[in-house]
Each structure stands twice: as C-alpha cells, then as structure tokens.
Specification:
heterodimer, A: 162 residues, mainly alpha, two-stranded antiparallel sheet, 6 helices, B: 180 residues, Rna Polymerase Sigma Factor, Chain: A, Arc Repressor Mutant, subunit A, 2 domains, 9 helices, 0% strand
Amino acid sequence: MACDKFESEGLLFCAGELSAEQSVSYESHLGECEECSREVKEYTEMFGEFSASDLLAEVPSAQCDAKIIVALEEEAVRQSKPVVSFGGIFTLFIQRVAVPAAIFLIALTVGLQISHKSSDNAASIAKTQDSVAVHEDSIADTGRTFIQGGSTGVIPVTLEEK
Amino acid sequence: MKEGFIPTGKKSADFRHFYEQYRIPVYTFILKMVKDRALAEDLMQDTFVSAVKYFDQFQEGRSFMSWLFGIAHKRTIDHFRHEKIVRVHRDKEESTLSAELDRPDEALENNTVRAALSDALETLSPVQREVFLMREMGGVSFKDIADITGTSVNTALGRMRLALKNIKIEFEKRGIYGVR
C-alpha cells in the first residue's frame, strides 16, 4: 500500500520545517518505509547540491534596476515628508480653528446671557422697591390692619408691630 | 534563501540595499509566473514600491521574504485576473505574447539542467509553479505559502509534490537524473 507520509511530512522534513520531535519520528519512519526513503532521496538528489534558486535565477536588466531604484528613492522622499491629506487638513482645522472658535462663541453667549440677566434683575429689584414703598404709603394712609401670612393661620398685626 | 537585510529606517540608502538584496528571487518568481520580461519588470516595481509604502504593516517575527513574496504573488494574481478579463478581446495578441515567452539565453542552453528545469516549469500548472517557486526561490515555508495562496498546508504540500513529480518526469525524458 502506498505511503502518503512523504507528502504530509517528508516535504516538511526536507524543507527543515518539522519540529525536532517530528523529525526524529519521521527519520525512524524512513528506516521502515521504502517509498518515503526513495522520495526523500530523489528530492535531495534533485536539489541537493545545486539549489533550484541558483538554476532558475533570473537577473533583472540594468534599466529595470535603475528604474526601480529611482521609484524607491521617490517613495523614500515621499515618506520623509509630512503627510498632507484632506483628512489631515480637516483634523488640523478642527483642532486649531473650529474647537477654539466654538469655545469662544459659547463663552460669549453665556457671558452675554449672564450680563443680560443681571441687568434685568437690577431693573426688577428697583421696580419692586418702588411698588412696596407705594403700597406701604397707602397702608399708612388708611391705618388699616396689615395681615401677615397667607389665607390660613392669619395673624392680625398692626402697622406698629410690623 | 536566507533572510537578509530588512529596511528599518526610511532613508533611500536603506531601500537601495533592500532592493539589491531581494531583487533576484522576486524577479525570478514573477518572471517565471508571467513569462514576459517587460511585464515582470513592471510587476516587480509595483512589488517593491508597495513593500516600501506599506512597510509599517510588516509584523516583526514574521519572515520578511514570505511577506515580500506575498506582495509579489498578489501583484501577479491581480495581473492574471485582469488578463482573464481582457483575454477574450485579444486572441491575436495572445499568440504574439507566447512567442515572447522567456527562453533561456543561448549560452545557458548548454546548461542542460538549467534548461531542463526551466522547461519543466512550463509543464507545471500555475498553482504548482507558484508553490515550487516560492519554496525554492524564496525559501518560503509551506505554512506561509498556504497563507499567501489562501489554501491549507496540505494543499500546498500536495501541489509541491505534483510539481516535483512533473519536474522529475522532465528530467528523466532528458536523461538527467539528479541535479548533481
């Protein structure tokens, strides 16, 4: 029966890609399996002394080398420059302009609202004081009893007590 | 092939050194796949420029050669996909292209083993050829070949075995047994 171990392990063995333990195990298998021994022998004979890489090696033309070296140098120059992309410009705009401008606008709006409110308050306090004075004057004029509190738990007081 | 220089900086001298180190295995792989020198040179330029451009994506601890062959493989496959789409419209040009298929130089014809191996590669299917070339030209591990080609390790091994069988047949036809 044909052994299929050369395909699954023998090639890895020849390529040196088996672990030490697996190599030992496969080596012992080689002692028992004629088919695997033959395949390993053939493989090492085919490419043992001269590697296929030496036999097949093709050299690119000098023109091709020169063209590629120029392209690589251009790429090196491109990489050494800071990257200016739309995304980069957008991020820079957000960081340097949009965010500070938004903070400034928010601060300005809040500041304006606060100053507007405080001037409104001042005006309403002045108005209230005027109205109280008028009211008290009118009470003093009539000499009527002033009622402190709400509608329940009414405590009658006189103007003198107040 | 052993792992060589890996560019760490972004200086042009680094890239020049990097190119010199890997140009032959990458070029051989691409040329043997596309079989056209001018096209192979274009694809090789794409491969190296992409490698430099996306070098940040290279994960340390991984094989640099595998990573580079992965890019070369992707460029080659992209070419074949494009080729497949336009093939219908250029049957006539196709015959011209096959006349341009790379042949070993006349001086190298004397090297029977080299010629036999080159011709044997022609008999392989593209998937067998790519596995064989990645393994033999780049020393790419079968696990990495499986990752690059989007298959399992067993499939990559199966393709390699078939490639070896076909090469052996070609060698036997020419009375060469063993590269020695």
